[in-house]
Structure formats: structure tokens, C-alpha cells
Design goal:
- With 274 residues, the chain is α/β, with parallel strands linked by helices.
- Helix content is 31%, strand content 25%.
- It has nine helices and twelve strands.
- A six-stranded mixed beta sheet has the order 6-7-8-3-9-10, with helices on both faces.
- A hairpin with a 2-residue loop joins strand 9 and strand 10.
- Bound molecules: adenosine-5'-diphosphate (ADP) and magnesium ion.
- Magnesium ion (MG) binds next to helix 1.
């Protein structure tokens, strides 16, 4: 069943001093099923962050509709929406002098009362979220002194701690080494499989997306080039079109990219069975 539906979404940015307008999203349509792990992919500037921020209601579209379980999200009030959708974005807010535990506890804001005091249940959720991201040992460390990978784990834990059915993440693997990338993607996979969460993230690694995501949404220019099950997208060779790979530059099954020949000689290989 569809949990999120995006219909004819359009966003135009006005540039400063009345210059040209930038059409970031043009009639974007796609839907996501409950519990799916979705990667939004596309070259830089194609509108992925705009799409996520529009779904997160951080920016307003100029046209189209976003529905959550059939309900238009523009009609939901902010506190209710914060219990349905959490977002881990790349905009870095200042979190100086907060411990990792404090940062994750902020995720409970939509659930705490007027004074924001945490109940035993809230504290349990903070602990569970830190543990799910393998970050419990970081709980007393100052957030601004953590490494990029450790910060990313803590921010994802904060997103989990909001206890929403839908989790949006903008580039959760950027600036991380391969070990952290895989750990983050595995944590998100576990959330889908064990907790039934719907995870929608932007990714820049076709090889990892092909291996771990259920559905791919490919954004090219200001529109959706393809959207569907990972297997179907791989078969359709849309990934090559997305990144402009030609010939054998990309193995869609393994998600491996190859460098084009640097020029020069052809090599003839002969082999025989033993
Ligand atoms: P991506 O995340 O795929 O790199 P973005 O959504 O950040 O793409 O940007 C899509 C397009 O919108 C780009 O051309 C970008 O320059 C433009 N854009 C993004 N944010 C703004 C903004 N606040 N004002 C004007 N143009 C913007
Ligand atoms: Mg972006």
C-alpha cells in the first residue's frame, strides 16, 4: 500500500535581484509503499534536496500535492506531521556544547509536553535509537567534536528517535568512508525490515543503491527519469542514461562503473577452457 504519493510537484526558485528563475522540480510524480527502502538518485543540481525538503514541508511547492496515506499533507498541522515524517538533512545547525545524547533527545520534541521534559519512555527511545546506530558509546561526547561519520550516526539516531513511520535522509553517506557508508545503509535497511519504517534517502553511490534499496527514483534535469523496483530499473538500463554512461562503462547488475579506455590500442584476449 502507498504511504507517500507525490503528484505533479513543481518548485521554482526565484533568484536574487530578479534574475532568471530556476525550475528545480517540474511535474514530479512517484509513490512509495509502506516499509520500502527508496533511493533518490541523480546528478548534482537535479533537485533531490528540493524534493526531500518539499516532502519534509521545509519548503513550499508552487504546484502539485503530497499525500501521506491518502491525506494531503498541506492540511496536517505541524505537530501532527512531525509525528509522521522525520528528516535528516545536510544543513548543519549549530549544536555546540550539546552531547550526542542531547542531540538525539531533541528528536522527542514532537512527543514531549509543553515543558519538553522527557519521560522514562522518551529516555528509553533515546537509548534505543543510539544503540540502533551503534552510537551508544558516543552519548556523553560533545557533538561538535565528533568526526563526520560519528555525527552522521547521531543525526540518524535523532531521526529514528522521532519515532515516525517515514524517515527522509539527504545524502546520509556523503563524506563517509566505505565502512561507515555500509554501516549507515545497513542500519536503515534494518529499520525497514524490523520496524516497518519507510526510508527515503538521496544517494550518490549507484553500486550501494542497487544492492540495498527496494526502489529507485532517478531524477534528471527537473523531472523523474524513472521510478520503480530496483530490479526493473536495472533491467531498463535507466541508470546508464541517468549518469551518461556509454557502452560497457556501467555494469547495472553489480552497479559497477568502469573508466572509459584512455585511448590507444585495442587489446585482443584469447582464452581456452581447461
Ligand atoms: P540536488 O540536491 O540534486 O543537488 P537541489 O535541490 O539542491 O539539487 O537544487 C536544484 C536546483 O535548484 C539547482 O539548480 C539549485 O541551484 C537550485 N536551488 C536550490 N536551492 C535554491 C535556492 N534556495 N535558491 C535558488 N536556487 C536554488
Ligand atoms: Mg542535494
Amino acid at each position: 500500500m502507498s504511504i507517500l504519493t507525490v503528484e505533479n510537484l513543481r518548485k521554482v526558485y526565484s533568484t536574487r535581484f530578479g534574475g532568471n528563475q530556476v525550475e528545480a522540480l517540474k511535474n514530479v510524480n512517484f509513490s512509495v509503499d509502506e516499509g520500502e527502502y527508496v533511493a533518490i538518485m541523480g546528478e548534482s543540481g537535479s533537485g533531490k534536496t528540493t524534493l526531500l525538503k518539499t516532502i519534509a514541508r521545509i519548503i513550499k511547492p508552487i504546484g502539485g500535492a503530497i499525500s501521506l496515506s491518502g491525506e494531503n499533507v498541506s492540511r496536517m498541522n505541524g505537530s501532527r506531521y512531525a509525528k509522521e515524517v522525520s528528516a535528516v538533512l545536510t544543513d548543519r545547525i549549530s549544536l555546540d556544547n550539546c552531547t550526542a545524547w542531547d542531540v538525539v533527545a531533541m528528536g522527542r520534541n514532537p512527543h514531549t509536553g509543553f515543558f519538553g521534559s522527557l519521560t522514562a519512555e522518551d529516555r528509553r527511545r533515546v537509548r534505543e535509537s543510539l544503540e540502533a546506530c551503534d552510537a551508544w558509546m558516543l552519548r556523553d561526547r560533545l557533538f561538535h567534536r565528533l568526526s563526520d561519520g560519528q555525527k552522521q550516526k547521531v543525526l540518524i539516531a535523532r531521526g529514528l528517535c522521532q519515532s515516525t513511520p517515514v524517515l527522509l535522509l539527504d545524502e546520509p553517506t556523503s563524506h563517509l568512508d566505505i565502512f561507515y557508508k555500509m554501516e549507515v545503509l545497513q542500519t536503515l535497511r534494518t529499520q525497514c525490515v524490523r520496524e516497518g519504517k519507510t526510508v527515503i534517502c538521496t544517494l550518490h553511490e549507484p553500486d550501494l543503491a542497487v544492492k540495498c534499496c527496494d526502489r529507485l527514483v532517478l531524477v534528471k534535469g527537473d523531472r523523474i527519469l524513472a521510478c520503480g523496483d530496483t530490479g526493473q530499473i536495472v533491467q531498463s538500463r535507466a541508470m546508464e542514461e541517468l549518469y551518461g554512461f556509454s557502452g560497457r562503462q556501467f555494469d547495472p547488475v553489480l552497479g559497477l562503473a568502469e573508466f572509459p579506455a584512455a585511448g590507444g590500442k585495442d587489446v585482443f584476449l584469447a582464452g581456452a577452457e581447461e
